[in-house]
Structures are given as structure tokens and as C-alpha cells.
Amino acid sequence: MIEVLNDRLYYLVAFLLIGIGTYMMIDKSNLVKKVIGMNVFQSGIFLFFIVIAYVSGASPPLLTAPGPYVNPLPHVLILTAIVVGVSLTAVALGLIVRIYEEYGTLDTAVIREVSEDD
């Protein structure tokens, strides 16, 4: 039982990160905390894809290494996703700065009230 749980511990951590990130994006009213939740969610997704691509006893896909080989495609996709995630975070933080300049707060409930009054 412990060995099975130990083998799947990475899946548990990935789903825990996804759950925490989802909770932060839904429950928190501060926009910066929502962006942090989005990054935690992304990290969970990245970890999940890396865990899926793991092959026990496999070697890197080099001509000199003996088989079986690890599939490099998930790793490349995750590297691309990390770059996209950093760009998305930068754009989101830029928008948050602009929203703060316009409304003077980062609380979504206050922003909603102010925008309905206008």
C-alpha cells in the first residue's frame, strides 16, 4: 500500500496544486491573489504532464544511450507552456496595475460596484 502511494505521490502533489490554484482563483477577491492562484494552477498542470511522461529506467533520447527512451515531446511542450505562462502573468500584472490606477483598488467586489455606478 505504501509503495503504491509512494509511486503516485507526484500525481497527488499535482492535483493538490491544481486544487489550491483553482480555490485561489475562485475564492479570493484580490486580483493579485487570483494571478498567484493561476500560476499555482499552471504549476500543477506542468507537474502533471511531466509525471505522465516519466518512464522508469528509461534514458534520454540520444543515439549513444541504450533504450528504452524517454519521450521528449511532453518536456518540450512544458517548456513552451512555461514561456507562455510567464508572458500571461506579465500581461495580467500589467492589466492589474492599470485597473488599480483606474479604480484605486484591487478588490473585485469594489471594482464591480464602482463600474455599475458609472
From TrEMBL:
<feature type="transmembrane region" description="Helical">
    <location>
        <begin position="6"/>
        <end position="26"/>
    </location>
</feature>
<dbReference type="InterPro" id="IPR050601">
    <property type="entry name" value="CPA3_antiporter_subunitC"/>
</dbReference>
<keyword id="KW-0472">Membrane</keyword>
<feature type="transmembrane region" description="Helical">
    <location>
        <begin position="76"/>
        <end position="97"/>
    </location>
</feature>
<dbReference type="InterPro" id="IPR039428">
    <property type="entry name" value="NUOK/Mnh_C1-like"/>
</dbReference>
<dbReference type="Pfam" id="PF00420">
    <property type="entry name" value="Oxidored_q2"/>
</dbReference>
<keyword id="KW-0812">Transmembrane</keyword>
<dbReference type="GO" id="GO:0016020">
    <property type="term" value="C:membrane"/>
</dbReference>
<keyword id="KW-1133">Transmembrane helix</keyword>
<feature type="transmembrane region" description="Helical">
    <location>
        <begin position="38"/>
        <end position="56"/>
    </location>
</feature>
<protein>
    <submittedName>
        <fullName>Cation:proton antiporter subunit C</fullName>
    </submittedName>
</protein>
